[in-house]
UniProtKB/TrEMBL annotation:
Keyword Transmembrane helix listed: yes
Extent of Basic and acidic residues compositional bias: 1-13, 39-55
Matches recorded under Gene3D superfamilies: PhoD-like phosphatase (3.60.21.70)
Taxonomic lineage from the root: Eukaryota, Sar, Stramenopiles, Ochrophyta, Bacillariophyta
Segments traversing the membrane: 99-119
Start and end residues of each stretch annotated as Disordered: 1-78
Keyword Lipid metabolism found: no
Descriptive protein name: Phosphodiesterase/alkaline phosphatase
Sorted UniProt keywords: Membrane, Transmembrane, Transmembrane helix
Positions of the PhoD-like phosphatase metallophosphatase domain: 190-470
InterPro entries, sorted: Metallo-depent_PP-like (IPR029052), PhoD-like_MPP (IPR018946), PhoD-like_sf (IPR038607)
Domain of life: Eukaryota
Length: 507
């Protein structure tokens, strides 16, 4: 009699040894029809291909022992243990297969991360790693510094200035950076991504000896070796002017015997090929669309400047010129004429860079205050010209304003310094940092207190609303990280670049 065995369900074909695949005729059960069972060898081979049996023990004596052929006892109970099921789910996969899969995925992820690290732009520099001087990390793309024209000045591939048809909306500016100090501010600038960065003087410190200016040449070489400078040069459009220490002499004026050499070193380093013969002043207008034209003017307040009158008071080296005021000049005849012509060009907003302060009326340091006739001449030229003055030199930051004729207001922001601002303002009444507010110069033109942290300035222009925001920002972080953009670094708590003081004005 043919066995009426039942066909295996697909989900448990390997779990039940009493079911089979195919038609009933394809396999017989020897216990049902009296035929002999498969040999132990055949059964072991078949079992080994799909799983194995475990013996659970002996049954009780049976009255049907003869029928079972087992000497009056039930057959030992055997539980089938499959190697794997064929349902294709993760839970049914063998442990070894799971481990292999996890390891494979982990290795693939590591390869992707490695490829991103190799081919992405190298990370910016972290402040504080002493081996590089300014804290740049070892992944910085360094390049060979070369002297292409035998000038003694290294060649740096600065990024080109924006095309003049571009509308500028974000400008950074600052002054006073010692090449002997860490310069993390370059990394902050790269993170800030200004359209243009204005260097307002004392870009290096290289006061020359009487016979030679080798120290100024070395200052530029030291400046160029900073990894932060190298990392930023190809990413920032930089436009610069000079102040006294990069003109080769403290409080430099027209009597500076090194001024022509210093001017040439400056031109070589920043690759300026069309400077005027009597200084480094420059100007450009950006933006073609009416209502969005920005004029940037860089003055030279050193090359032709006359003498300041000496003061004999403590902590105040100079005082406003008196009897000989008309004999002293700030810019020189050629530069004054150039400035008048420059201001006659149409522009909707102007930023005028003076390396020394213009509006300050409380300082005994170098400032336009010491040449009152020259300052008044400048006021008259700037009347109704929508001009903001940007200045440096003082190693503190601050905001100033003064009324002009016909309701016009002239404003100035001083951003100083990049690397070594002073805790105190230098006034004789200063005792310690606890009296810092009392040390602020008495000056009705200053708006608010000095900013004494290392700082730089920014101007963000909303052309649509005809508003601009001028801010003084932190040049480095108090916690040693100099990133502004958290996507560039795992540490998202840096305060580098945060606003220390800010104003909003219309134009």
């Amino acid at each position: 009699m043919e066995s009426q065995g039942k066909e295996c369900p697909k989900h448990n074909a390997l779990e039940s040894p009493r079911c089979f695949h195919g038609t009933p005729a394809s396999r017989t059960d020897g216990l049902e029809n009296g035929s002999s069972e498969r040999s132990p060898t055949d059964r072991r081979q078949e079992d080994a291909s799909i799983g194995h049996y475990e013996t659970e023990g002996l049954g009780e004596p049976s009255s049907t022992g003869a029928r079972q052929g087992l000497g009056g006892r039930h057959r030992r109970k055997r539980r089938y243990v499959p190697i794997a099921t064929n349902d294709g789910t993760w839970s049914s996969a063998p442990l070894c297969m799971k481990i292999l899969t996890v390891v494979t995925i982990a290795l693939a992820v590591d390869v992707v991360i490695l490829m991103v690290y190799i081919f992405e732009a190298k990370p910016l520099h972290t402040y504080g790693v002493s081996e590089h001087g300014d804290g740049a990390n070892s992944t910085t793309n360094a390049w060979t510094i070369t002297d292409t024209d035998n000038s003694g000045i290294p060649f740096i591939p600065w990024k080109a200035l924006p095309p003049t048809e571009q509308t500028l909306t974000r400008i950074a500016f600052g002054s006073c950076a010692s090449q002997h100090m860490p310069q993390p501010y370059w990394d902050v600038l790269v993170s800030y991504q200004p359209d243009i960065t204005l260097l307002m003087g004392d870009n290096v410190y290289g006061d020359c000896d009487e016979d030679t200016c080798a120290v100024l040449q070395q200052a530029y070489r030291d400046f160029a070796t900073h990894p932060s400078v190298q990392g930023a040069a190809r990413q920032l459009s930089v436009w610069a002017t000079l102040d006294d220490h990069d003109y080769g002499a403290n409080d430099a004026n027209a009597n500076n015997v090194h001024k022509d050499l210093a001017r040439q070193l400056f031109a070589d380093f920043f690759q300026y090929h069309d400077l005027p013969p009597d200084g480094v002043y420059q100007a450009k207008v950006w933006g073609l669309q009416d209502g969005r034209r920005l004029q940037l003017i860089l003055l030279d307040t050193r090359y032709s400047r006359g003498l300041f009158e000496q003061s004999h008071e403590e902590m105040t080296p100079y005082r406003p010129s008196g009897a000989n005021a008309s004999e002293q000049v700030m810019l020189g005849a050629r530069q004054w004429q150039w400035l008048e012509e420059t201001l006659a060009q149409p522009a909707d907003l102007r930023l005028l860079v003076s390396s020394i302060q213009v509006l300050n009326d409380g300082t005994g340091e170098e400032a336009w205050r010491q040449l009152p006739l020259e300052r008044q001449r400048l006021y008259e030229l700037l009347q109704n010209k929508s001009t903001v003055i940007l200045s440096g030199d003082r190693h503190v930051g601050g905001f100033y304003e003064t009324p002009l004729m016909y309701g016009d207001v002239l404003r100035e922001v001083t951003a100083s310094s990049w690397t070594h601002s002073v805790a105190l303002a230098g006034d004789r009444n200063c005792v310690d940092t606890l009296t810092a507010l009392e040390c602020d110069e008495i000056d009705p033109r200053r708006v608010g207190s000095f900013v004494r942290e290392n700082n730089f300035g920014t101007i963000e222009i909303d052309w649509e609303s005809r508003l601009f925001t001028v801010s003084l920002r932190r040049a480095e972080s108090t916690n040693g990280i100099v990133y502004l953009d958290p996507t560039r670094h795992h540490n998202k708590t840096s305060d580098a670049g945060t606003i220390l003081s800010s104003q909003v004005h219309s134009f």
